[in-house]
Design a protein that fits this description.
194 residues; alpha+beta; Immunoglobulin-like; 4-stranded antiparallel β-sheet; 2 helices
């Protein structure tokens, strides 16, 4: 007879064995230490980056709040544009005091005038830090129908970009009196019948 304590049938639950387990890599502790050191180094880098971002944010807030250091056109965004017409001319004036003629572009496409300005400035301080300033604007003007786009001109004087064009002379329209009909009698106001 077979003893049930020696053999187990294949359909029974497996037995729990208490066997010492050894690592496949003899240096498993060394790998964990290396991973911990790498994670600590990355955390330090993240802390330093966060500190730099906080310093940059502080500097930017201070510059924005200090209105004496911020040029007027940068503080208000895109340059203001004033459009005027008189009997003979159309004028558009933009405040572009921070831009040189080389940094400005004026293009005409049909009845549209496309204005743009782009300025980059890089500076190095005595401590070795760098600052970079970038300004850009784009404006679009639609010329009125009574303006001659072929004679459009542009000038820059005292920080003001001035665009002007002569207005077309309107053709003379013949004048006539239009009779008014009366609903009551069907007669015209001037005494004439229909």
């Amino acid at each position: 007879m077979w003893s049930s304590s020696l053999f187990q049938p294949s359909f029974s639950t497996p037995m729990a064995l208490r066997v010492p387990v050894s690592a496949l890599w003899p240096q498993s502790q060394l790998i964990c230490v290396q991973m911990e050191n790498e994670m600590a180094r990355q955390m330090d880098n993240m802390r330093r980056s966060a500190d730099l971002m906080n310093q940059l944010q502080h500097v930017l807030r201070r510059e924005v709040l200090d209105t004496d250091k911020v040029p007027r056109s940068a503080a208000r965004g895109a340059p203001s544009c004033k459009v005027e017409k008189d009997g003979q001319h159309f004028y558009a004036t933009l405040e572009v005091e921070d831009f040189t003629p080389e940094e400005l572009t004026v293009k005409q496409v049909g009845r549209k005038v496309l204005l743009s300005g782009k300025k980059e400035k890089k500076e190095e301080s005595e401590e070795g830090s760098y600052s970079y300033r970038y300004q850009e604007f784009r404006r679009e003007l639609e010329l009125p129908e009574d303006v001659n786009p072929e004679e459009l001109s542009c000038s820059l004087n005292n920080g003001q970009l001035r665009i002007e064009a002569p207005r077309k002379a309107l053709p003379s329209v013949p004048e006539r009196v239009v009779p008014i009909k009366s609903d009551v009698s069907g007669r015209l106001k001037n005494g004439e019948e229909e």
